[in-house]
Amino acid sequence: MSARPTFHLTLLSLLSLLLCFLYLATADDLQILLTIKSALQNTNSNIFNSWEPNNPPCNFAGITCSQGSITSIDLSNQYLSGSIPFNSICQLNSLETLSLGQNHLHGPITEDIANCVRLQYLDLGNNFFSGSVPDLSPLSNLKYLYMNNSGFSGNFPWNSLSNMTGLLVLSLGDNPFERALFPNSILGLTQLNWLYLTNCSIEGEIPRGIGNLTELINLELSDSFISGEIPQEISRLKKLWQLELYNNNLTGKFPSGFGNLTNLENFDASMNYLNGDLSELRSLTQLVTLQLFYNEFSGEIPAEFGEFRKLVNFSVYDNKLTGPLPELIGSWAEFDYIDVSENFLTGRIPPEMCKRGTMRKLLMLQNNFSGEIPATYSNCTSLTRFRVSNNSLSGVIPSGIWGLPNLGFIDLALNQFEGSITPDIGNAKSLSQIMVADNRFSGDLPPEISKVTELIAIDLSNNQFSGDIPATIGELKQLYSQSSLTEQQFIWANTQQYRLLLSFVLHLKKSSKGDGDRSLKEESWDVKSFQVLSFTEDEIIDSIKQDNLIGKGGSGNVYKVVVANGKELAVKHIWNSDSDGRKKSRSTTPMLAKSTGRKSSEFDAESMGIPNKVTEKSDVYSFGVVLMELVTGKRPIEPEYGENKDIVSWVPSKLKTKGKLPALRPTMRSVVQMLEAAEPCKLVGIIISKDGGSKKEEI
Ligand SMILES: *[C@@H]1O[C@H](CO)[C@@H](O)[C@H](O)[C@H]1NC(C)=O
Ligand SMILES: *[C@@H]1O[C@H](CO)[C@@H](O)[C@H](O)[C@H]1NC(C)=O
Ligand SMILES: *[C@@H]1O[C@H](CO)[C@@H](O)[C@H](O)[C@H]1NC(C)=O
Ligand SMILES: *[C@@H]1O[C@H](CO)[C@@H](O)[C@H](O)[C@H]1NC(C)=O
Ligand SMILES: *[C@@H]1O[C@H](CO)[C@@H](O)[C@H](O)[C@H]1NC(C)=O
Ligand SMILES: *[C@@H]1O[C@H](CO)[C@@H](O)[C@H](O)[C@H]1NC(C)=O
Ligand SMILES: *[C@@H]1O[C@H](CO)[C@@H](O)[C@H](O)[C@H]1NC(C)=O
Ligand SMILES: *[C@@H]1O[C@H](CO)[C@@H](O)[C@H](O)[C@H]1NC(C)=O
Ligand SMILES: *[C@@H]1O[C@H](CO)[C@@H](O)[C@H](O)[C@H]1NC(C)=O
Ligand SMILES: *[C@@H]1O[C@H](CO)[C@@H](O)[C@H](O)[C@H]1NC(C)=O
Questions:
Q1: Domain residue limits, the chain
Q2: Where is the signal peptide (predicted)?
Q3: What global pTM score does this model have?
Q4: Phi, psi (deg, nearest 5) at residue 666
């Protein structure tokens, strides 16, 4: 019976050998992980707290082991910076998952990555790498490859993909690679279900071999240089759930059989040169989002669209579509927006798009829709945009529409609407633009307009409005009291007796006196009338009286002034609080210049005729500077004025008067005379200050 101890001994030594081996391996792994830790910096996460030499590596946060070997490193979304030591990492020869996406990693990807041959999952996406991607062909076990939006450039090693026959996900988009044809190496990856190649410089045609990728559920090729037609073979991709082709150079019609893609939920082929009609799409009943704007599609919108049970976003603006919209379009799901602007559509506004109370945008500009606005929109409180200008719509605006609480923009211009703007507009707490020009609206502007505290622009021109501009309009100055920006409000008014553009320049300044008895932010606003006018200073001065008061501001009142030729002006009388404002700086700030982005046909401020720059003026003094600049064509500071002198000291010297102190300046009457003499037909702006001076501005 001596065999037993021997056996035990053997087993023991075997065990200890094994333990010893494991220990050694782990010691190597530990060293590698500590190298990774020292290469990467993390300021906002504590992922590395557990990465200490006295801890077993398999217990480190983000590390997964299998049978004692490290198989996975997941450090994604950990605010990491630094560059990746692939020479160390790829010594972990059991590593199958390396997930480093959504960090701030930089530097190049070194060729050492080719040693990570066991990798099945590689995520380097959403980082700040540089340089080109090295050869990846040894990584033939990859199933998931994310390198999207990570700063890679140069030629991608497309041929490396041919060996990755098990690849399920390939995401390389949003990198400035060299231009390349759609890579043939992808066409053999028949397991692929996710292909993201948007915005990474793919050019040429979509190859017919795309039809090989029958497992695809997502195919994204947008923002590229792809031309030619959509290949007929695409209709073999019956599992497609999302197809994104926007912003390319695609031409031609939808291929026959496209309608076989009946699992499509999101389809966007906007911004191409596609033509033909939409009849292939009538069987795509699962569509949630359909965007085809900026193309050359014609024909009618298929009636079947009215039965699409999931549709929430529908944007086909700027095509050549004709006929009516399906009556029930948008009535089934939690509809979000429709933009069918700039087509040749007719018929009525579909009444049920806000049935679920979720609709945010109704954009149907520039078609030939007719009939009335359906009353169903009266309680569509989710609406932020209601824009139907330039159609043949008529009737009275259903009550409730004016006062929708989230509506930011109501645009009814260029129709045949009638009736009045009703007092419920006082409920419109978000309304910043009211565009109702060129209709048959009538009646008074209700005083409740003053409760539309977000108002920036209102255009009432070419209607039959009557009565006065409500005195309460002056209260609108409360608007931007919390804002540090300069804003400008415009009012166009036309009652066939007067046509008026009031421009409320609201500007805010910090009190130069610091914490005085006035608030830190002191506002003033100027009202100018941009019109060719003729008037005398006395006409203006004499009208500055209580009877004509139409508004009160923090630093002055606004008066209605009827001048001799019958024109009405709004004139701001500013209390001079700081006559020596020479130190005040002027700057030009952009206003409402933000682009509305590619996904909407909505116009920005510029296309409404609102200038995208507004001059910030701290007080009447600098306003005067602006006027003088405009009229004289000179800049505020120029060498010819002399050292430390500006346009204000220059203008009086031109007038042969001396001195910089306000009292010694020429009267504003003489400035006005001078300006009139200089530009007799360009007198357009007026501002009255406490000393009775008036100035003019050329527009
Ligand atoms: C981009 O990469 C991230 C991982 O970094 C991934 O979650 C995301 O789905 C990828 N985007 C696309 C469109 O493939
Ligand atoms: C693909 O893998 C085989 C061996 O598995 C290798 O011989 C070939 O060179 C690889 N192809 C590429 C493009 O790397
Ligand atoms: C396209 O990719 C670049 C990086 O190459 C990125 O900066 C840009 O934002 C992407 N464009 C879009 C529309 O996402
Ligand atoms: C399509 O797949 C087949 C095998 O399924 C393959 O033989 C063929 O080469 C592929 N076509 C392209 C264009 O890669
Ligand atoms: C896309 O089409 C436009 C207009 O037809 C053309 O000017 C441009 O060169 C085309 N670009 C490409 C990459 O084909
Ligand atoms: C569409 O599918 C039907 C049946 O599933 C099939 O008969 C037809 O050939 C397909 N059309 C195309 C163009 O793939
Ligand atoms: C509809 O479009 C809006 C705006 O682009 C987007 O935020 C929303 O996610 C889309 N809804 C669906 C279901 O795609
Ligand atoms: C509007 O009122 C009608 C009738 O009361 C109701 O059926 C509908 O759901 C309401 N819509 C919203 C958005 O509240
Ligand atoms: C109104 O629409 C017509 C086309 O129907 C267009 O020619 C015209 O320019 C549009 N008017 C405005 C002011 O947008
Ligand atoms: C618009 O439709 C009306 C009928 O509703 C028609 O009288 C008018 O001619 C149409 N206008 C255009 C430009 O087609």
A1: 493-688
A2: 1-27
A3: 0.75
A4: -65, 155
